[in-house]
Each structure stands twice: as structure tokens, then as C-alpha cells.
Amino acid sequence: MNYQAILDEIYEEIQPELDKGKVADYIPALAAVEKGQFAMSLTLGDGSVYSVGEASKRFSIQSISKVFTFTLALEHYSRELYKRVGVEPSGNPFNSLVQLEYEQGIPRNPFINAGALVVTDALISHYKDEYNTLEAILGFIRRLTENPEIGFDAEVARSEMEHGDRNLSLAHLMKSFGNFENDVHATVMTYFKHCAVEMSTEELSRAFLYLAFGGTDPISGTAFISASKAKRINAVMLTCGHYDASGEFAYHVGLPAKSGVGGGIAAVVPGKMSIAVWSPALNRYGNSHAGTLALEKFTTKTGLSIF
Ligand code: GLN
């Protein structure tokens, strides 16, 4: 298949969509990001990379980082983790408090904010403090990409904490139900820092390759997680990766994928490749508008959905 020609075609077709939607503005440092930008990269199992647009420009990966933290937590806790967080779609926005109250502080899944906060809390318990935890998360992403220079934007994390009342509320509510072990402020700050990790689509598509190949990166040969756990992470991405638009995403795109409010989406084509796309303007669910459409075009043109 001529992947470069397909990406070039998508790039042409997507242009009229780039200004539609809204950049996330509840994190002031992200509100400053210009609309109209676009990048898409594919990394195949043999290491070949195809890209269009601003594919080496780094952006805030936000909730895409939840896939990395979930992977680490599954590795350390296995089934024990599921006592604290479920794997069921929430049908609610990513930062909703309502369901958490009537489900006694057990978040539906690790990709809504409450679930990701529990995962970060579990990692802090495992690594003993927030500094080791952040180092472990960054170290994991650096090993996945074989790039020691990946880091986070401290200004984005600080700006999010300044407006972090909702995430702090989620954490406090879970603590009141006994489902939070560490200091709320330090844990939420660690969560904001891993959300503020910056990566390009080239780097992200490389980082997700382990999920397309049963937990082992086919380029370096490193086994990051067991095949069975990789399968489960993909299942949770498919059913929960786009919050209350996960059904729609599965319907239109048909790939396990995770979005972030920075406008990125990382997707997995099992046994073949991983794909990352970035365009900062979001639809009403908080997922990249043009990014979602670009992935839909990709699976339509290539026939590469899991269905
Ligand atoms: N850091 C963001 C938040 O907690 C992540 C949300 C997202 O990317 N959907 O609100």
C-alpha cells in the first residue's frame, strides 16, 4: 500500500476542517495554541515511518498519557488494580463527578480523569513518592520512543493546577470513599505533569507500537508488557478511549485509540502499525475534530479497521 500517497490525500482533504472546533481553553496555557495545525504519522512494525504536516512539532499529549500510566499500573498491580478502577465505558464527559458519587468512588475506567487519577495514585504508592513516579513515567515513555529527550511542559502543568478545582474535587471525593492513598495535591500535580508531556506525532506513533505488537516493540525487540495485558489495554482504548464519544469513534474509525485535549489521538492497527494524529481544535466531546476525521478517512481508504 502506498501510505505516503494516502497521507498526502488525507492532508489535502482535511484542510477545510482544520478551523472547525475549539481549542481547549479550560487550561489557559493550551488556549494559546493556534488552530489550523495538523500532523499525522504512521510507524510500521518494520520501523518505516510515513508522515504529513508538522509531524516533528511537539504538542501536549494530555490524556494520551493515561495509556502509559495504565500500562505501568497494570504491570505492577495486575488484577488488584481492578478493585480500584473498572473497565466499563462511562457514557459521561471525561471530567464528570456525578457517576463517581453514586458508584462509591470507583471510577468506571482508567481513561476518564477520575480513573487516571486513581492510576497515578496507585503508581505513587508503588514508587514510594511523586518524584520517583514522574521519573518512572517519563522513563517509560523515553524507552518506548528510544528518545531520552522527551519531557513535560512545567508551565502547562502549573496552569492546569491553577484551574484544577474539578480534578482536585474528583480526587477528594475518591479519598472520602477510601479509594485514594496519597496526598491529593501532590498526586493531582503528578497527574498534571504526565498530562503535560510533549511529543510529536512521529514520537507518539513510535511509542504506541508496543500495543500493535502484543506488548513488544518490534523495532527494539523490548517486551514492555505481556500480550494478554496489551490486548486488554487495546480493549479499554476501543471502548473508553474517547469518553462519551467512544461508540461513535469505534463506529466511524474502528481502531483502539486514545485522545487528549491537546488535540492528539494515538491509534493502533493490531499487527501492523500505530498512528498518531494532531490537530488542536476539538469537537464537543473534547476530542480532536480534524484528527478524528483524518483517522476515519485513513481506515476508509485503507480498509485497515479491526472490524
Ligand atoms: N489534563 C486534562 C484534564 O485533566 C486531560 C483531559 C483530556 O485530555 N481529556 O482535564
Distance between the termini: 19 Å
So, the CATH homologous superfamily of the largest domain? DD-peptidase/beta-lactamase superfamily
Q: What percent of residues are in strands?
A: 5-15%
Number of domains: 2
> What structural class is derived from the secondary structure elements?
alpha+beta
What is the strand tally? 7
Which runs of at least 5 residues are low in confidence (pLDDT < 50)? none
CATH class descriptor of the largest domain:
Alpha Beta
CATH topology name of the largest domain: Beta-lactamase
Kindly report the spatial arrangement of strands forming the biggest sheet: 2-1-7-6-5
What is the helix tally? 14
Helix fraction, binned, reads: 40-55%
The secondary-structure element order is: HHEEEHHHHHHHEHHHHEEEH
Going by CATH, the architecture of the largest domain would be: 3-Layer(aba) Sandwich
Biggest beta-sheet profile: 5 strands, antiparallel
Radius of gyration: 18 Å
Q: Give the averaged pLDDT, no decimals.
A: 97
Shape: globular
Bound molecules: glutamine
